[in-house]
Specification:
With about 220 residues, the protein is an alpha/beta fold. The protein contains eight helices and ten strands. It is elongated and about 55 Å long.
């Protein structure tokens, strides 16, 4: 009988944001496939869990898939985690999950933290409909084209961004989508958590040349 691949959501910052079920699963599986062993060890050490770790990160993840699938076929349960949040959501995981399903291996989600829903829930923007865009193109031309393609979208738009890119991103939104409401959720659940809310012009003035640190989830109001 094949083992199970558990897709385990882990904290996006605060290590207390992990479910009892996730801790139980991590303690019971034969091995844990993780993005960065150093990050995963922080969680395991905090909760006294000792398990073999299989480094599984982009762009080398493909090399690990046959090994992990073989373990699953041998009847061993494996947990898949990323550095933060839910695996496969702009993080490694999708190719392994697809390979496991192709082999008839059960894939079991263990729900947990997500920067997308955490930021959306406290944003003050409409939550009934949203579109997760992920990381936008790094170059200005690609970013502008993406935003132009989303101009008529009524859902709240959600992006992941390195904070150094925020001034450039806000300027691109101003030039393509107009003076919409924007929320920058920075360092979610961490010590320096911060929400910056306002119209595009207000945020541009508030941030100015200020150097923000960390990762950010940026939400843009949908078309009216």
């Amino acid at each position: 009988m094949a083992g199970r691949l558990f897709v385990v959501g882990t904290p996006i910052g605060n290590l207390e944001d992990i479910t009892l079920r996730a801790l139980r699963v991590l303690g019971e599986v034969a091995a844990i496939a993780c993005e960065d062993t150093r990050q995963t060890l922080k969680i395991l050490n905090r909760y006294g869990i000792r398990k073999p770790l299989l480094s599984y990160f982009q762009p080398q993840e493909g090399r690990r898939i046959p090994e992990i699938v073989r373990m699953l076929q041998e009847g061993k349960d494996v947990a898949l985690v990323s550095d933060a949040g839910t695996p496969g959501i702009s993080d490694p995981g999708f190719p392994l999950i697809r390979a496991a399903l192709k082999e008839g291996i059960p894939v079991v989600p263990i729900p947990g933290p997500s920067a997308v829903t955490a930021a959306l829930s406290a944003s003050g923007l409409p939550t009934h409909r949203f579109l997760f865009v992920g990381f936008p193109p790094p170059k200005a031309t690609g970013l502008r084209k993406l935003l132009e393609s989303l101009a008529a979208e009524k859902a709240t738009l959600i992006f992941f961004l390195p904070t150094r890119k925020i001034p450039e991103f806000i300027a691109a939104v101003a030039g393509t989508l107009g003076d919409r409401r924007v929320v920058v959720a920075r360092e979610l659940t961490k010590i320096h958590e911060e929400f910056l809310r306002g119209t595009v012009s207000e945020l541009a003035a508030a941030i100015g040349p200020r150097a923000l640190k960390g990762e950010a989830t940026v939400l843009v109001e949908g078309a009216g």
